[in-house]
Amino acid sequence: MKLGLVGAGQIGGVIALLAAMERFEEIALFDVVEGLAEGKALDINHASKILGSSSIIVGGSSPEILSGSDIVVVTAGVARKPGMSRDDLLKINANIVADVAKHLKSYCKNAKVIVVTNPLDSMTWFLIKKTGFEPQRVIGMAGILDSSRFAFHLAEKLNIAPACVTATVLGGHGDDMVPIEATATVEGIPITYFLNDDTINQIKERVRFSGGEIVNFLKTGSAFFSPAASVLVMVRAISNNERRLVTASCYLRGEYALSDLCFGVPCILGKNGVEKIVEIELTENQKNLLEKSAQRVRELNQILKDNL
Ligand code: APR
Asked: Which pTM does this prediction carry?
Protein backbone atom coordinates (compact mmCIF):
# COMPACT_ATOMS: atom_id res chain seq x y z
CA MET A 1 0.00 0.00 0.00
CA LYS A 2 1.34 3.41 -0.97
CA LEU A 3 -0.02 6.62 0.50
CA GLY A 4 0.65 9.76 -1.56
CA LEU A 5 0.43 13.15 0.13
CA VAL A 6 0.03 16.20 -2.10
CA GLY A 7 1.04 19.12 0.10
CA ALA A 8 3.60 18.69 2.86
CA GLY A 9 2.47 21.66 4.93
CA GLN A 10 0.91 21.53 8.38
CA ILE A 11 -1.77 18.91 7.65
CA GLY A 12 0.30 16.87 5.18
CA GLY A 13 3.21 16.68 7.62
CA VAL A 14 1.06 15.44 10.51
CA ILE A 15 -0.69 12.88 8.26
CA ALA A 16 2.76 11.53 7.29
CA LEU A 17 3.76 11.22 10.95
CA LEU A 18 0.51 9.50 11.95
CA ALA A 19 0.69 7.13 8.98
CA ALA A 20 4.30 6.26 9.88
CA MET A 21 3.23 5.56 13.46
CA GLU A 22 0.66 3.13 12.03
CA ARG A 23 3.43 1.55 9.91
CA PHE A 24 1.72 2.34 6.61
CA GLU A 25 3.91 0.51 4.09
CA GLU A 26 5.02 3.40 1.86
CA ILE A 27 4.45 7.15 2.24
CA ALA A 28 5.35 9.72 -0.44
CA LEU A 29 5.21 13.44 0.32
CA PHE A 30 5.07 15.94 -2.53
CA ASP A 31 5.13 19.73 -2.25
CA VAL A 32 5.96 22.48 -4.73
CA VAL A 33 8.16 24.20 -2.18
CA GLU A 34 11.67 22.92 -2.76
CA GLY A 35 13.03 20.95 0.19
CA LEU A 36 9.86 21.00 2.32
CA ALA A 37 8.69 17.46 1.55
CA GLU A 38 12.25 16.07 1.59
CA GLY A 39 12.90 17.71 4.95
CA LYS A 40 9.72 16.41 6.58
CA ALA A 41 10.25 12.91 5.18
CA LEU A 42 13.79 12.80 6.55
CA ASP A 43 12.67 14.17 9.92
CA ILE A 44 10.04 11.41 10.26
CA ASN A 45 12.54 8.79 9.05
CA HIS A 46 14.85 9.90 11.85
CA ALA A 47 12.06 9.13 14.34
CA SER A 48 11.24 5.69 12.91
CA LYS A 49 13.63 3.83 15.23
CA ILE A 50 12.04 5.56 18.25
CA LEU A 51 8.48 5.09 16.97
CA GLY A 52 9.09 1.51 15.89
CA SER A 53 7.97 2.41 12.37
CA SER A 54 8.87 0.32 9.34
CA SER A 55 7.30 2.70 6.80
CA ILE A 56 9.31 3.73 3.76
CA ILE A 57 8.97 7.52 3.66
CA VAL A 58 10.13 9.68 0.76
CA GLY A 59 9.65 13.34 -0.07
CA GLY A 60 10.20 15.48 -3.14
CA SER A 61 9.17 18.49 -5.18
CA SER A 62 8.53 16.53 -8.35
CA PRO A 63 5.10 14.90 -8.71
CA GLU A 64 6.59 11.63 -10.09
CA ILE A 65 7.15 10.72 -6.45
CA LEU A 66 3.40 9.99 -6.26
CA SER A 67 3.65 7.23 -8.89
CA GLY A 68 1.63 4.15 -8.03
CA SER A 69 -0.06 5.59 -4.94
CA ASP A 70 -3.13 3.58 -3.90
CA ILE A 71 -4.55 6.42 -1.81
CA VAL A 72 -3.72 10.11 -2.28
CA VAL A 73 -4.55 12.87 0.19
CA VAL A 74 -4.73 16.38 -1.25
CA THR A 75 -3.90 19.15 1.23
CA ALA A 76 -2.18 21.40 -1.33
CA GLY A 77 -3.49 24.92 -1.06
CA VAL A 78 -3.61 28.03 0.99
CA ALA A 79 -4.98 27.89 4.55
CA ARG A 80 -7.22 30.53 6.14
CA LYS A 81 -5.96 33.57 8.00
CA PRO A 82 -8.02 35.51 10.58
CA GLY A 83 -10.98 37.27 8.96
CA MET A 84 -11.11 34.87 6.00
CA SER A 85 -13.87 32.35 5.42
CA ARG A 86 -13.16 29.01 3.78
CA ASP A 87 -14.97 30.36 0.71
CA ASP A 88 -12.43 33.20 0.36
CA LEU A 89 -9.88 30.57 -0.67
CA LEU A 90 -11.94 29.47 -3.68
CA LYS A 91 -10.09 30.85 -6.68
CA ILE A 92 -6.54 30.49 -5.33
CA ASN A 93 -7.09 26.90 -4.31
CA ALA A 94 -9.01 25.98 -7.47
CA ASN A 95 -5.91 26.79 -9.53
CA ILE A 96 -3.82 24.60 -7.25
CA VAL A 97 -6.35 21.75 -7.38
CA ALA A 98 -6.42 21.97 -11.21
CA ASP A 99 -2.64 21.51 -11.15
CA VAL A 100 -2.93 18.57 -8.75
CA ALA A 101 -5.57 16.94 -11.00
CA LYS A 102 -3.01 16.79 -13.85
CA HIS A 103 -0.50 15.03 -11.59
CA LEU A 104 -3.07 12.51 -10.40
CA LYS A 105 -4.04 11.66 -13.98
CA SER A 106 -0.38 11.24 -14.95
CA TYR A 107 0.99 9.34 -11.96
CA CYS A 108 -1.77 7.57 -10.04
CA LYS A 109 -4.87 7.42 -12.16
CA ASN A 110 -6.40 4.55 -10.17
CA ALA A 111 -5.92 6.01 -6.70
CA LYS A 112 -8.63 6.69 -4.18
CA VAL A 113 -8.42 10.41 -3.41
CA ILE A 114 -9.19 12.20 -0.16
CA VAL A 115 -9.52 15.97 -0.52
CA VAL A 116 -8.81 18.30 2.41
CA THR A 117 -8.20 21.61 0.61
CA ASN A 118 -10.82 24.28 1.35
CA PRO A 119 -13.47 25.24 0.47
CA LEU A 120 -13.77 21.52 0.85
CA ASP A 121 -17.00 20.54 -0.89
CA SER A 122 -16.27 22.67 -3.95
CA MET A 123 -12.66 21.51 -4.20
CA THR A 124 -13.77 17.86 -4.06
CA TRP A 125 -16.35 18.48 -6.79
CA PHE A 126 -13.79 20.42 -8.87
CA LEU A 127 -11.22 17.63 -8.59
CA ILE A 128 -13.80 15.10 -9.83
CA LYS A 129 -14.54 17.31 -12.83
CA LYS A 130 -10.87 17.98 -13.58
CA THR A 131 -9.71 14.37 -13.31
CA GLY A 132 -12.77 12.60 -14.67
CA PHE A 133 -12.24 10.00 -11.91
CA GLU A 134 -15.27 7.99 -10.76
CA PRO A 135 -16.89 10.15 -8.05
CA GLN A 136 -17.05 7.13 -5.73
CA ARG A 137 -13.28 7.31 -5.22
CA VAL A 138 -12.89 11.07 -4.69
CA ILE A 139 -14.05 11.97 -1.20
CA GLY A 140 -13.81 15.13 0.87
CA MET A 141 -12.71 15.02 4.51
CA ALA A 142 -14.77 17.21 6.79
CA GLY A 143 -17.67 15.36 8.41
CA ILE A 144 -15.44 13.25 10.63
CA LEU A 145 -13.72 16.38 11.87
CA ASP A 146 -16.89 18.44 12.38
CA SER A 147 -18.56 15.47 14.11
CA SER A 148 -15.52 14.99 16.35
CA ARG A 149 -15.62 18.68 17.31
CA PHE A 150 -19.31 18.29 18.16
CA ALA A 151 -18.60 15.16 20.22
CA PHE A 152 -15.71 16.87 22.02
CA HIS A 153 -17.71 19.92 23.11
CA LEU A 154 -20.66 17.80 24.25
CA ALA A 155 -18.28 15.57 26.23
CA GLU A 156 -16.49 18.60 27.66
CA LYS A 157 -19.81 19.93 28.96
CA LEU A 158 -20.64 16.55 30.51
CA ASN A 159 -17.12 16.03 31.85
CA ILE A 160 -16.88 12.60 30.25
CA ALA A 161 -14.55 11.01 27.70
CA PRO A 162 -15.22 12.19 24.11
CA ALA A 163 -14.97 8.54 23.02
CA CYS A 164 -18.34 7.88 24.77
CA VAL A 165 -20.11 10.47 22.61
CA THR A 166 -21.40 9.94 19.08
CA ALA A 167 -22.53 13.08 17.28
CA THR A 168 -23.01 13.81 13.60
CA VAL A 169 -22.60 16.97 11.55
CA LEU A 170 -24.04 16.96 8.03
CA GLY A 171 -23.87 19.40 5.14
CA GLY A 172 -21.19 21.61 3.64
CA HIS A 173 -17.95 22.24 5.52
CA GLY A 174 -18.73 25.90 6.10
CA ASP A 175 -20.54 28.14 8.53
CA ASP A 176 -23.86 26.62 7.41
CA MET A 177 -22.93 23.06 8.43
CA VAL A 178 -25.72 21.23 10.26
CA PRO A 179 -24.97 19.54 13.62
CA ILE A 180 -27.71 16.96 14.26
CA GLU A 181 -28.53 16.65 17.96
CA ALA A 182 -31.39 14.18 17.39
CA THR A 183 -28.90 11.38 16.73
CA ALA A 184 -26.27 12.45 19.30
CA THR A 185 -25.83 9.94 22.12
CA VAL A 186 -23.66 9.06 25.09
CA GLU A 187 -23.10 5.31 24.70
CA GLY A 188 -26.52 5.04 23.05
CA ILE A 189 -28.39 7.29 25.53
CA PRO A 190 -29.84 10.37 23.75
CA ILE A 191 -27.90 13.56 24.49
CA THR A 192 -31.20 15.30 25.27
CA TYR A 193 -31.36 13.15 28.42
CA PHE A 194 -28.26 14.94 29.73
CA LEU A 195 -28.40 18.48 28.32
CA ASN A 196 -31.19 21.01 27.79
CA ASP A 197 -31.96 22.66 24.43
CA ASP A 198 -30.22 25.94 25.25
CA THR A 199 -26.96 24.21 26.13
CA ILE A 200 -27.12 22.00 23.03
CA ASN A 201 -27.81 25.01 20.81
CA GLN A 202 -24.83 26.91 22.26
CA ILE A 203 -22.59 23.93 21.57
CA LYS A 204 -23.93 23.57 18.00
CA GLU A 205 -23.16 27.24 17.39
CA ARG A 206 -19.64 26.84 18.72
CA VAL A 207 -19.06 23.77 16.53
CA ARG A 208 -20.13 25.62 13.38
CA PHE A 209 -17.46 28.24 13.97
CA SER A 210 -14.82 26.18 15.74
CA GLY A 211 -12.51 26.06 12.72
CA GLY A 212 -12.53 29.88 12.78
CA GLU A 213 -11.86 29.87 16.51
CA ILE A 214 -8.61 28.02 15.83
CA VAL A 215 -7.69 30.35 12.94
CA ASN A 216 -8.11 33.31 15.32
CA PHE A 217 -5.79 31.70 17.86
CA LEU A 218 -3.12 30.60 15.39
CA LYS A 219 -3.27 33.75 13.21
CA THR A 220 -0.98 32.28 10.52
CA GLY A 221 -2.97 29.21 9.49
CA SER A 222 -5.79 26.84 10.32
CA ALA A 223 -6.33 23.61 12.27
CA PHE A 224 -4.01 20.76 11.39
CA PHE A 225 -3.83 18.08 14.11
CA SER A 226 -7.55 17.24 14.06
CA PRO A 227 -7.88 17.35 10.23
CA ALA A 228 -4.87 15.02 9.94
CA ALA A 229 -6.32 12.62 12.52
CA SER A 230 -9.64 12.64 10.64
CA VAL A 231 -7.88 11.81 7.37
CA LEU A 232 -6.22 8.82 9.02
CA VAL A 233 -9.65 7.38 9.89
CA MET A 234 -10.56 7.55 6.19
CA VAL A 235 -7.24 6.15 4.98
CA ARG A 236 -7.58 3.21 7.37
CA ALA A 237 -11.18 2.57 6.33
CA ILE A 238 -10.17 2.39 2.66
CA SER A 239 -6.86 0.53 3.00
CA ASN A 240 -8.29 -2.10 5.39
CA ASN A 241 -11.67 -2.26 3.60
CA GLU A 242 -13.33 -1.57 6.95
CA ARG A 243 -16.78 -0.68 5.53
CA ARG A 244 -16.92 2.00 8.20
CA LEU A 245 -19.79 4.46 8.50
CA VAL A 246 -18.48 8.04 8.55
CA THR A 247 -19.69 11.43 7.41
CA ALA A 248 -17.76 12.68 4.40
CA SER A 249 -18.20 14.94 1.40
CA CYS A 250 -19.59 12.62 -1.28
CA TYR A 251 -20.70 13.28 -4.85
CA LEU A 252 -24.49 13.13 -4.84
CA ARG A 253 -26.73 11.92 -7.64
CA GLY A 254 -30.18 12.49 -6.23
CA GLU A 255 -29.50 11.38 -2.65
CA TYR A 256 -31.01 13.84 -0.16
CA ALA A 257 -32.70 15.37 -3.22
CA LEU A 258 -29.35 16.89 -4.30
CA SER A 259 -27.47 16.34 -7.54
CA ASP A 260 -24.07 17.12 -9.03
CA LEU A 261 -22.42 18.45 -5.91
CA CYS A 262 -20.21 17.11 -3.13
CA PHE A 263 -21.79 17.42 0.29
CA GLY A 264 -21.33 16.02 3.79
CA VAL A 265 -23.53 12.94 4.21
CA PRO A 266 -23.20 9.60 6.02
CA CYS A 267 -21.47 7.00 3.89
CA ILE A 268 -19.79 3.62 4.14
CA LEU A 269 -16.08 3.70 3.31
CA GLY A 270 -14.30 0.63 2.03
CA LYS A 271 -11.73 -0.50 -0.53
CA ASN A 272 -13.54 1.19 -3.45
CA GLY A 273 -13.94 4.50 -1.62
CA VAL A 274 -17.60 5.33 -0.99
CA GLU A 275 -19.29 1.92 -0.99
CA LYS A 276 -22.71 3.36 -0.17
CA ILE A 277 -24.32 6.67 0.66
CA VAL A 278 -26.64 6.27 3.64
CA GLU A 279 -29.84 8.28 3.61
CA ILE A 280 -31.37 9.02 7.00
CA GLU A 281 -34.77 10.49 7.63
CA LEU A 282 -34.64 14.21 8.40
CA THR A 283 -37.09 16.64 9.95
CA GLU A 284 -38.43 19.52 7.85
CA ASN A 285 -36.19 21.91 9.80
CA GLN A 286 -33.07 19.79 9.16
CA LYS A 287 -33.98 19.55 5.46
CA ASN A 288 -34.27 23.34 5.27
CA LEU A 289 -30.93 23.87 6.99
CA LEU A 290 -29.25 21.38 4.65
CA GLU A 291 -30.79 23.09 1.64
CA LYS A 292 -29.35 26.42 2.79
CA SER A 293 -25.92 24.83 3.18
CA ALA A 294 -26.22 23.14 -0.24
CA GLN A 295 -27.17 26.44 -1.84
CA ARG A 296 -23.87 27.96 -0.65
CA VAL A 297 -21.91 25.03 -2.10
CA ARG A 298 -23.80 25.37 -5.41
CA GLU A 299 -22.95 29.08 -5.58
CA LEU A 300 -19.24 28.36 -5.21
CA ASN A 301 -19.41 25.55 -7.78
CA GLN A 302 -21.11 27.94 -10.18
CA ILE A 303 -18.12 30.31 -9.97
CA LEU A 304 -15.81 27.37 -10.71
CA LYS A 305 -17.84 26.25 -13.74
CA ASP A 306 -16.17 29.06 -15.72
CA ASN A 307 -12.81 27.31 -15.15
CA LEU A 308 -13.86 23.82 -16.21
N1 APR B 1 1.23 21.25 -5.46
C2 APR B 1 1.68 20.72 -4.29
N3 APR B 1 1.70 21.40 -3.14
C4 APR B 1 1.27 22.66 -3.16
C5 APR B 1 0.77 23.29 -4.33
C6 APR B 1 0.78 22.52 -5.53
N7 APR B 1 0.34 23.03 -6.70
N8 APR B 1 0.40 24.55 -4.03
C9 APR B 1 0.63 24.71 -2.71
N10 APR B 1 1.15 23.58 -2.17
C11 APR B 1 1.56 23.31 -0.79
C12 APR B 1 2.19 24.51 -0.11
O13 APR B 1 3.54 24.67 -0.52
C14 APR B 1 2.04 24.13 1.36
O15 APR B 1 3.22 23.50 1.86
O16 APR B 1 0.43 23.03 0.02
C17 APR B 1 0.88 23.15 1.37
C18 APR B 1 -0.28 23.60 2.24
O19 APR B 1 0.17 23.58 3.54
P20 APR B 1 -0.21 24.70 4.61
O21 APR B 1 -0.10 26.03 4.00
O22 APR B 1 0.57 24.40 5.85
O23 APR B 1 -1.77 24.45 4.86
P24 APR B 1 -2.48 23.32 5.75
O25 APR B 1 -2.73 23.85 7.10
O26 APR B 1 -1.77 22.04 5.60
O27 APR B 1 -3.91 23.27 5.02
C28 APR B 1 -4.02 22.82 3.69
O29 APR B 1 -6.31 22.19 3.95
O30 APR B 1 -7.79 22.55 5.72
C31 APR B 1 -7.38 22.98 4.46
O32 APR B 1 -7.89 25.33 4.48
C33 APR B 1 -6.85 24.39 4.50
O34 APR B 1 -6.82 24.65 2.13
C35 APR B 1 -6.00 24.42 3.24
C36 APR B 1 -5.43 23.00 3.17
From this structure: 0.97
